[in-house]
Fold:
Amino acid sequence: MMGAYKRPVALLMLAASLVLVVTGFWIWLGIFGAGRGGGIDSLRHTLRDIHLYAGWTFTAMMAAHIACNAKAMARHLGLVSDAPKNRASRGTLHP
Structure:
């Protein structure tokens, strides 16, 4: 069931991170007056709003990504053994 959500979650996480990088640099560099006063005041506020919502989206998608891949991450970190369990009881022979 969780496998169906892995691709959309990863794509949304990628999109949100790209938006965060672009708007963050745009605000930091002050392109068209964004972030450093002057210029178009509404653009600065719009970029900050987009940056904020992209950050929240990224945080939510990261939580969903962890939830979708919890079993694989636990195996990778060595918290869970990936060796198959032997279901045969001791001392018995099964064909």
Observations:
- The longest helix spans residues 41-68.
- The mean pLDDT is 76.
- Residues 3-76 form one domain.
